[in-house]
Design a protein that fits this description.
Length: 533
Amino acid sequence: MTTPEEYSEFSKFEHLVPDTINGVRLDKHLGDILKNEAVSREKVKKLVKDGLVTIDEKKCTKPNTKVFAGMNISVTLPVVHNEIVPEEGYVDILYRDNDLIVINKEAGLTVHPCPSCPEGTLVHRLAHHLPEITQMEGFRPGIVHRIDKDTSGLLIVALNEKTRLALSEAFAERTISKEYLALVHGTPPSSGEIREPIGRDPKMKIRMAVVPNAKEAHSEYRTLYSDPKGKFSLVAIKIYTGRTHQIRVHMSHLGYPLWGDTLYGGGVKSDSPLAPYASRQMLHAWKLNFEHPTTNAPMSFTCQPPQDFITLIERLTLSVQRVALTGMPGCGKSVVLSALAEKGIATWSADTIVHKLYEHGADGWYVLRGRFGSEISPDDGDVNRRALFERMQESKTNRKEVEQLVHPLILHDLALFWEEHAADPFAVAEIPLLHESHWDREVDIIAGVRCEGNSRQNRLQNIRGWNEDLIATMDSWQWSEEDKMKACHIIVENNGSLEALNQSVDKFVEAVMRVRAKKLQQTVEAITTLWSE
């Protein structure tokens, strides 16, 4: 038991119990009275147990002792000497007065000391910049709430014990509003409410989890933006309770873990191109609203997320630009595709895939044999393309039937091509019937190859050996060149020499990169506007 004599510095608090008090617990009564002296009820209990409280000049060590009107209570209040050693380090202080500060905590900085992090915390830095907090006891001086080490954003810190108690009470009563920004995997609904209880994960003690009969946990979210390809969403999350890892647990439970959150399923593999950009859970304390504990003035703060949020959004948005190359038969699409391949750009050709699908025993050979028999897919050879073409010429119904059988196989191979080159700036697929087959939804940029009518006619007749009837038939199955070019984002002219074509291809590559950069800029600006409003 501690005695007053063991303290070198202390003050006395004398109190006469008023007539209105009759049989109230000592710790409760003193807690109410000493609140203005910045002494919490828990601290009162400790003072009583340490023998620093007397009633009518008799030492009392039981916090539940009943007090009555007319009793004289004396409390010895030791002067606190904090053992936090100040450390230099930057603190982004957004607001400061005599009672509190509001800061923007950087990601990677632990808020207060603990056994696993006894130094190098925010509290150590605050002790350097704000020596007054060292007058508060414990290893969490001024800290009334915290955010995880790898979470960035807004934090209130009390500069005196009275303010700390008032803010702690406000948090307990849930009158302080906190909203976070998170980058999550997938596409959540536009809004939602989560009331799943959170407790220690019984299978992994370092994690929290949704556990039946655990502590109440209440979160609400609204989806501010979702990537069209479903890679990520920007979500604003408001929490009404302060459970450990609450947002991370709740969003993971819904199936939308935070990007970079290795503990709750949102991390990326170490060899992933995204690994350097998702090295922490993408969570940022964005908004904070509360009533000032001294002035009662409404306080409102908004803090934009750090650069790593924007960088990850850029990397997630910078998926391969899927470029389609289209045009009329004989316009020179294959020549343009070869020129692109020579420049090291990934290319794909629908015609090449069709040839592979029509080989003996290939998927296309099987589906056509199942529908048309050995006449089209002979036992000892590849698909009879001439017989298949003649059947397609018989009627529009036959042609559409063949397309319905073969096109899904081509699309599947195209999807694999995009996936294989997901890390490339862009890749190019030659798709002659892009618009006619409504495959334009499978690409991001459409490039049309155009040439003069006479040049195209000569190529088809002299190089491919097509007669006028075949040319007319093939043209009838397609949009007109004018309509095709109108539906393209970029036009590649193919009317001159090979040198001129290469120049056109160079301009085409530059144009694709400009479109890519513009789309990225528009996306990032649209997202950053959401948290700048």
